[in-house]
Design a protein that fits this description.
Length: 123
């Protein structure tokens, strides 16, 4: 088994700290954001059933044309946030708990959260 580096341990601690109150919330599903250097994705997960209720990604075929027109990664993130909120509301999910997945709450992660709030999700 590989020994964890200090960076990996620090990232795990940060990720778990941000999930402490979010995972298995009794009333609300969890909106999780994943960010890579090139793409961003978000999904609404019901932890009790272990099912994904809605998802959106910059790799989706439906959103691909809009992502190509975006000028920055922030614009792509706002597009993902609004798309996810529309899909979640379509599946009758209004209230969620935001899980930043250990990422700092600024930049692209904040853009996803703000866009989802403006599109109608409550958290």
């Amino acid at each position: 088994m590989k020994k964890m580096s200090t960076n990996e341990m620090r990232n795990d601690r940060r990720r778990n700290r941000s999930k402490r109150n979010n995972v298995a919330h009794p009333n609300r599903p969890r909106l999780v954001v994943y960010r890579s250097n090139k793409h961003i994705s978000a999904q609404v997960i019901n932890d009790h059933d272990g099912k994904t209720l809605a998802s959106a990604s910059s790799l989706d075929k439906i959103i691909e044309k809009l992502v190509a027109k975006a000028k920055s990664k922030i614009e792509v993130s706002t597009l993902i946030g609004t798309t996810l909120a529309e899909r979640a509301i379509k599946n009758k999910v209004k209230k969620v708990v935001f899980d930043r997945n250990g990422y700092p709450y600024h930049g692209r992660v904040k853009a996803v959260a703000d866009a989802a709030r403006e599109a109608g999700l409550e958290f």
